[in-house]
Amino acid sequence: MNNDNLSQKLQDKDVLKMLLAVLYFGEGAKWKSHHGLMLGSSDPNLVCLYINLLRECYGINSKSLKCRVSYRADQNINSLQRYWSRVTSIPISNFYKTIPDPRTIGRPTRRKEYKGVCVIMCGGTHTQLELEMIPKIILKGL
Description:
The chain is α+β, with helices and mostly antiparallel strands. It has five helices and three strands; from the N terminus they run H-H-E-H-E-H-E-H.
């Protein structure tokens, strides 16, 4: 199956918004007490897709995003923050301080390429509510 024609669809802002909504539906924060958007992943491609879609759909610049890294006890947080800052273009000054997962103390990281979970945060309860409604609209239409 040839999917070359799909890139043409990416010019449509409504299509991008649906992609963002489905991505957020699958990977974003699910609880209602949070104010704004929050999505975390250990996959740099998924994190970059999310950031790019936020920019394209809502004009949210990566420099206005906040970030924290969830990591294992044997990992170096400074190194991880530098890595995720390079990947996301989020300044290190926008990273929240975190502590390692205490459940990992004494348990070495087996996957050496694992760089923790990058959690992206930004304000915008209105945007969050809109993104939560879109999958329901899609489901109704199918």
